[in-house]
Amino acid sequence: MKTGNGDIELAGIVKSYDDGQTYAVNGINLKIPDGAYCCLLGPSGCGKSTILRMIAGHEDPTSGEIVIGGENVVGLAPVERRTAMMFQSYALFPHLSVRDNIAFALRVRGLSRSDRYRKADAMIEKVRLTELRDRLPGQLSGGQQQRVALARAAITEPRVLLLDEPLSALDEHLRIRMRTELRSMQQDLGITFIHVTHTQLEAIALADIVVVMDKGAIRQSGPAREIYSAPRDRYVAEFLGGQNVLSGRIGEINGVRATMNGALFSEVAIPLPAGKRLETGQELDIAIRRDDIELKPLSQKGMLPADSASVEGTVNGIEYQGNFVKVMLQAAGEDEFVAFVPERKFFEENLAIGEKVLAVWQISHTQVMA
C-alpha cells in the first residue's frame, strides 16, 4: 500500500507563545523525501513534539510553511492533510476488540461494515494479529497493543505517519524487537514516517534521516551514519554519544597536518579537514570515536606509530558491557574521556582503577569540528 506524495518541506517554521518572546521552535527548515523514515531526536523541551503536532495539524505555526506533496497544508485539518498520528499512550478503546479498534477510523468516515472489516482484516494480517483480532486491548501485551495502534493509524492510507515516542513505554527487550517491526512495516507500507524520540540508539537504528534538535533549532540533519561518525559540533557529538570531544587551539600547521594544544595537553596531531581553512591560534573542537581509542602503557609513548595521536589519562571507572568494556579516564581536562575496549582484549591486559595509560587513536579517524 504505497500512497505517494509524502514528501515534506518545512520552510521557516516558527512557533512562539503568547508573549512573542518565547519560542518552541524558531526558523526550522527541513526537507524529508517521500517514503523516508525520519527521526526527530533531542532532549525534552527541544521542540521535536511541537514540530510533529504542527505537521499533523493539531497546532498551527506562528509563521512559515508546511508543504506536503507540494501543497502548503497550514490551516488544513488533519484528515485533509492525509496524515495520521500514533500517540505514545496508544489511546486504544478498551471496550472495542482489536478488529473494531483498527476499523474505527473507517467507521467514522462512513464506510460500510463489510468494507471496513475487509480493510481491517487485511491490515490485521499485515501486522500479524490475526489470531488476536477478537481480543480487547487489556488482553494484549505492550508490543501487541503497539501494533494495533500502528495498524489503526495506517489503515486510513495516510501520506505521512507520525509517531510520538512510540517505544518509550516498552521494556528494553521489547523495544529492540519493536524497532525491527516498525522499520519493516514502514518499508512494507512505503509511506513517510516521522518518529519523535529522545533515545539516540533508537534514532540511529531506525532512521534514513536523523534530525538532532536543541532549544527549538536543528543542529544537524542527515543519514544516521553521517550524524554519528561526522558530528558537526560539540553538542551533536556529545548528545549522540560514542564520541570523545577535545577543545583547544591550533599550534603548528605543516600543510598535511596540524597540532592542537589544550589546557592540559599539547601537540595532539589532527588532520587538515577538506574544505575548511585552519589558522594558527584558532579555537576548535575535535571528536574521536570511543571505539577508535586504544589504551597503551605510558612506557610506549615514544614508540607510537607516526600516524597516531594520544593523550595521557588515569583510569577512574570500568563498566562491563558484554562485548566490550567501557573504560572511563580522567584525561586532557575533559569531564569524560572514554574508550570502548573489546572484551577479550580488556581482560588480557587487565587494567585497574588508578592506572595511568595512553589513549591512542589514528590521526585520520579524528573529526575536526572547526
Walk me through what this model shows.
The chain is of the alpha+beta class and 370 residues long. The chain folds into two domains: 8-229, Rossmann fold (3-Layer(aba) Sandwich), CATH 3.40.50; 242-369, OB fold (Dihydrolipoamide Acetyltransferase, E2P) (Beta Barrel), CATH 2.40.50. 26% of the residues lie in helices and 34% in strands. The protein contains ten helices and 20 strands. The protein has helices at residues 48-56, 78-81, 98-108, 113-126, 142-154, 172-189, 200-206, 224-229, 234-240, 343-349; strands at 8-16, 23-32, 37-41, 63-68, 71-72, 83-86, 160-164, 192-197, 209-214, 217-222, 243-253, 257-261, 268-271, 283-289, 294-297, 308-320, 324-331, 337-342, 356-362, 367-369. The strands form four sheets. It has a six-stranded mixed β-sheet with strand order 6-7-8-3-9-10, sandwiched between helices. The chain starts with 7 loop residues before the first strand and ends with a strand. 36% of the residues are buried. The mean pLDDT is 90.
